[in-house]
Write a structure and sequence with these properties.
The protein is α/β, with parallel strands linked by helices. It has 15 helices and 17 strands. Strand 12 and strand 13 form a beta hairpin. Helix 2 packs across helix 4, helix 4 packs across helix 5 and helix 7 runs parallel beside helix 8.
Length: about 425
């Protein structure tokens, strides 16, 4: 099929089979194509990496800057339902036609250079942003930092939200090893923000070694507050009487503080008033991050897929008050620390509905069940200690059955993978 006649779906199918590896760490190939395309930004760029909290921090930055009247581009990954979710300009998803046109340009520029799906799509979205004449660009790191395709751009401010164990095959199996990879997005002489309250020494050492301007949570910026409002304190800027972010859950003030530190570092180029910051925090939205759907029983969607995120989800479930029974719709990738995820949530869940997912990398439900039993989860019909483990081929079947059996006072937590959440969201959009 000729490139000009290809739909977005055609392009995405082509991208999936274009490179021999799904993930191929390194910047040489992608940087070479970026140079041919002439990808450079004249506006401020904020890059956001970290194990968890990236999406929330990006969403807050976008919302606040848009409230300030700036034209903003936001690149995030992965998407939940539609590829277009990865690229937003002024809060609007970019169109299929825009993406296809950008894919054509990248395809022409790459010549005989082979690119992965992520590298190719990253270049296309960066090109869209360059052509859009934006005031600010926010880029979420896909995996790690140092060797991620996003890191071909020298960001004016780089944020690392948190450092914990995930993607160990690619990044190393200690926080120190992973911290070094995350710190790879920092640049000499530019603001390097870390909102992890206990950053690994490797991150601090790397930032110091390259001469980055390191902002540490607790030293360079902080927050305080009560039930009604909170305050941000930075190096030379205080923001008082702030509304809590509309994103639910623990750690959101850490994420919000990192966003405000980044905006403080850019205050000369992107000035913002107090009301614009307040409005931005109140109006921010992010699907799939402790998202509570309207209606009964309560359904919570959360893309928690590593132990650190699962611990936060457990904390958030605790803060919701009493529910007679909690059902879990749980599906995960086989290369994740499934046992680590379960260990944080096993005492919060009464009924486990295990689901298969439409990807070769997905764990089968028998493996998930074995992990549950290894973690000490036992099926029981004893009154007051009821626990069931059931198997489903997909998240849609699992949520339909959970809703059939749950009372309006119960709750259903959907977690473990973006695809688990996507399956339930897809059903919701067709209701």
């Amino acid at each position: 099929m000729h490139a000009t006649n290809m739909s977005l779906n055609d392009w995405l199918l082509r991208l999936e089979s274009m490179h021999p590896k799904a993930i191929d760490m390194g910047l040489d190939r992608v940087a070479a194509v970026a140079q041919i395309l002439g990808l450079t930004f004249s506006c401020p760029v904020i890059t956001v990496g970290g194990t968890n909290g990236k999406g929330s921090t990006c969403a807050m930055l976008e919302s606040i800057l848009m409230q300030g009247g700036y034209r903003v581009g936001l690149y995030t990954s992965p998407h939940i339902l539609h590829f277009n979710e990865r690229a937003r300009i002024n809060g609007e998803l970019v169109s299929d036609d825009s993406l296809c046109a950008a894919f054509e340009k990248v395809d022409a520029a790459r010549r005989d250079i082979s690119l992965t799906y992520f590298e190719f799509s990253t270049l296309a979205i960066l090109l869209l942003f360059v052509e859009a004449g934006l005031d600010a660009v926010i880029l979420e790191v896909g995996l790690g930092g140092r060797l991620d395709a996003v890191n071909i751009i020298d960001a004016d401010v780089a944020i690392v939200t948190s450092v914990d164990l995930d993607h160990q095959y690619y990044l190393g199996d200690t926080r120190e090893a992973i911290g070094f990879e995350k710190a790879g997005i920092y640049r000499a002489g530019r603001a390097a923000i870390c909102s992890d309250p206990a950053p690994p020494a490797s991150l601090i050492d790397h930032a110091t070694k390259i001469g980055a301007d390191l902002w540490l949570f607790g030293r360079d910026f902080n927050y305080s507050g009560d039930r009604q409002q909170w305050n941000y304190g930075g190096r030379s800027l205080r923001r008082n009487s702030l509304a809590y972010p509309s994103l639910r859950g623990a750690n959101q003030l850490l994420n919000a503080s990192a966003a405000l530190a980044a905006l403080e570092a850019l205050r000369d180029r992107l000035p913002l008033g107090a009301q614009e910051v307040r409005n931005g925090l109140v109006m921010v939205e992010l699907p799939g991050r402790f998202q509570v759907l309207p209606g009964r029983p309560q359904v919570i969607l959360d893309v928690a897929h590593n132990p650190h995120a699962a611990a936060t989800l457990a904390q958030n479930l605790d803060s919701m008050g009493f529910f007679p029974f909690t059902y879990a719709i749980f599906g995960a990738m086989s290369d994740k620390d499934v046992l680590g995820v379960i260990s944080h949530l096993k005492d919060k869940i009464d009924h486990w509905y295990l689901t298969g997912l439409p990807l070769d990398r997905a764990a089968d439900t028998q493996y998930l069940a074995d992990c549950l039993r290894q973690a000490g989860v036992q099926e029981s019909t004893e009154k007051g200690a009821e626990c069931t483990i059931r198997h489903f081929s997909n998240p849609q079947e699992a949520i339909i059955e959970a809703k059939r059996l749950a009372t309006e006072n119960d709750r259903i937590a959907v977690f473990g993978s973006f695809l688990t959440v996507a399956g339930v969201m897809a059903l919701k959009t067709t209701d």
